[in-house]
Amino acid sequence: MLALLLALALAPFLFPGTRPVAVASRICIFIVLAASYDVMLGYTGIASFAHTMFFGLGAYGVAIALAKLWVGWSAVLLGTVGGVALAVALALLIGLLSLRVRAIFFSMTTLAVASVALILATELRDLTGGEDGLTFSVPQLLSPAFRLVDAPVLGVRLDGRIVTYYLVFALSLLLFLVMLRVVNSPFGRVLQAVRENEFRAEALGYRTVVYRSMAGAVSAAMAALAGAMMALVLRYNGPAATLSFDLMVDILLMVVVGGMGTLYGPALGAVVLVMAEYYLQPAMGGLAEAVAGWPLLPALFHPDRWLLWLGVLFVLIVYFFPAGIIGTLRRR
Amino acid sequence: MSAARLRQLAADWSPYAILPLLALATLPMMSPSTWLTLTIAGIAMGMMLFLMAAGLTLIFGLMQVFTFAHGAFITLGAYLAVSVLGALAPWSTAESWAVNLAVLAVALAVALVASGAAGFVFERVIIRRVYGAHLRQILITVGGLIIAEQLMVAVWGASPLPLPKPPSFQGSIILGGAAIEKYRLIAVALGLAVYAGLALMLSRTRIGLLVRAGVENLEMVEALGYRIRRLFVGVFVAGTALAGMGGVMWALYQEQVTRVIGSEMTILIFIILIIGGLGSVGGCFTAAVLVGMVTNYVGFLAPKLALGCNILLMMAVLLWRPRGLFPVGPG
Q1: What is B33-320's CATH topology?
Q2: How far does A170 lie from chain B, in Å, by closest CA?
């Protein structure tokens, strides 16, 4: 974990170039996103499918503020706060309405609500740019053309991209620490008690619905903040980038592969998955060429099929290592 | 018959009444011919939804197994329809009712068998290890869905495949000034036949009796010495086979097949299950037709509302009857 932290902290200097910095910032954001989903899935034991919706709300908050209002830090702040507020309100509403019934109803409801959010984002063309999404400019400090120091430091030009990266890195670290604090607080203890035995927790005097809804709100707020960072990094936001169901599946994979209910696990899962997304595909392309003569095999190893193998991995992990990487290591 | 029994019967029938009431309530809002077109369209859509959802309600109801992979079997049926109609191209492009119906029957049979077989494998490999663990069921079936979808993409390719209807299913009949698509009538006929068959099987045969008893009280049936696991495998296979048939019908209706054709329907199917009451085939049928009709009416009267209307419908029904229209089994 420390090595990972160091690698991320020094990423722009260790691996110069635009692509590694893009990968590193994606990793930071997805660490926050996966960890926030873990607060929900791992610590309260309920599967929500609306997590991308909260992520998207944060991203659209920033995107709409910067694209439609004005360009500046106040717009970024306004968009973020708006997105987070909306995400928290929605999370509380969904939680209070549907957490009273059986867990499966909650999963179904979140899936339905998330699909409505996706349709709304695609249809409200004037506000969200529809299918094409929104492209916008960011405050000058973060734009690629900006130079912090004219002379290169350690062989790296300190441009806006690097500034953006360190902003994202610092924020991600902060948010991750906040979440660690939350789940290790008395509040987090109650969440785990509710997860282990809802009936008993209720009998001990804890209002399980309230605690679960609160956990949902915290998780939604963190996801929205991650979304806001995503929009700043990409300088673009659209339905496919932050709302798609594929993204939801990715988050689920990260949390389960890394280990539910550990918070460090999802962070590791995020690293593994983002790296796989960027670097596994070329490797699979090579494999596909190697088996080109065989029937069906090239189709199975086609670079676009990486999700297939992750799906297989996912099922195997749920079977044999339900605790994920970190959980299994801890038990040793 | 006592007064209490009568009252109970009345209460049980009231959910059925919403279908004609809804149809009557919307009649004044549009011209009669439009109304007829929309009503038939709604019923036809409902029938196809019923085919896709019927198996899932029994799977949920009988074993409390939560699967998110049902859409994969719909997609499988849809892709099989493309393959069968493509392989029998002379039949599927012939301008003859009989030949076109024959090719549809072949496609339905292939989908039935193949989806059922896939369902059997899925149950044995994926589901059987996670009985009783709900969170793991949700996770593992999502994993299964990813694998199944990606496998199908590996076989049929990632780009959407066109699937034109056979010529005799195209076009409409004019009935009293209302245009009714021929294909919708076929869908209605098939849906009614399947519903009748399912209802007969559930109410008249020994297996049906066991399934209904299992939905009501699983442990009691097991205690009486019946192998409930084996029964459940049968229900799972039948449910996925029906989903495959529904996939064929839906694909021909959409005339285009993508890898997400099934998982797109999952949300609508869940809404139907919740409205109908988990485990109730009759409730599933009513809810499917209700959803189909509401979608069509709202799509015509207020297109902007169409997005959320089914979710609003679900909330309204749950406020009225928190366990769905026809609750069965333990709460």
Answers
A1: ABC transporter involved in vitamin B12 uptake, BtuC (1.10.3470)
A2: 32
Mutate to test the interface with B, among A100, A104, A127, A244 (most CBs of B within 10 A): A104
A105 and B CB contact within 8 Å = yes
- Mean pLDDT across A35-44: 86
Radius of gyration of chain A (CA): 20
Residues A250-280: tens digit of each pLDDT = 888 888 888 888 888 888 888 888 887 777 7
Closest by Cβ to A315, choosing from B147, B267, B314: B147
Domain ranges of chain B: 33-320
Q: Give chain A positions within 8 Å (CB) of B151.
A: 308
In contact, B18 and B280? CB cutoff 8 Å: no
Is residue A303 situated within a structural domain? no
Cα distance between residue A307 and residue B41, in whole Å:
37
**Chain B nearest CA to A292, separation (Å):** 14
Give chain A's domain count.
1
Task: Determine contact: A47 vs chain B, CB below 8 A.
Answer: yes
Return the beta strands (E) in B86-211 as ranges: 161-162, 172-175, 178-181
Q: What is the pLDDT along chain B (331 residues), one digit of tens a residue?
A: 456 655 555 556 667 777 777 777 777 777 778 888 888 888 888 999 998 898 888 888 777 777 888 889 999 999 998 888 888 777 777 777 778 888 888 888 998 999 999 999 988 888 877 777 777 787 888 888 888 888 888 888 778 888 888 777 777 777 777 777 888 888 888 889 999 998 888 888 888 888 888 877 888 888 888 888 888 888 889 999 999 999 998 988 888 888 888 888 888 888 888 888 877 888 888 899 888 888 888 888 877 666 677 877 877 777 777 677 777 755 4
The β-bridge relationship of strands B172-175 and B161-162 is unpaired
Residue A30 included in any domain: yes
Instruction: Count CB-CB contacts under 10 A for residue B92.
Output: 24
Cα B143 to Cα B140: distance, rounded to the nearest angstrom: 5
Q: Per the CB < 8 Å rule, is A113 touching B311? A: yes
ipTM value, please give it: 0.70
B270 to A111: CB separation less than 8 angstroms, yes or no: yes
Query: For chain A, how many helices (H) and strands (E)?
Result: 18, 2
Number of H helices, E strands in chain B: 13, 4
Q: How far is B155 from chain A (nearest CA, A)?
A: 7
A119 touches B at CB < 8 Å:
yes
A310 near B CB under 8 A: yes
A307 part of contact set with chain B, CB < 8 Å? yes
The domain spanning residue A160 has which CATH number?
1.10.3470
Residue A306 to residue A269: CA distance in whole angstroms:
16
CB B267 within 8 A of CB A112: yes
> Could you report the per-residue pLDDT of A287-301, keeping only the tens digit for each?
666 666 565 566 666
Answer yes or no: is pLDDT of A330 > 50. Answer: yes
Does residue A45 lie within any of the structural domains? yes
Which residues in chain A are closer than 8 Å to B135, comparing Cβ atoms?
A: 45-47, 103
Domain assignment of residue A103, given as a range = 2-265
- With CA atoms as reference, report the closest residue to B74 among B148, B167, B150, B161: B148
Residues of B in contact with A245 (CB under 8 A): 263
Residues of chain B found within 8 Å of residue A300, distances taken between Cβ atoms: 154
Neighbours of B5 (CB within 10 A): 9
Is A302 in contact with B154 (Cβ distance < 8 A)?
A: yes
Distance of CA B284 to the CA centre of its chain: 8
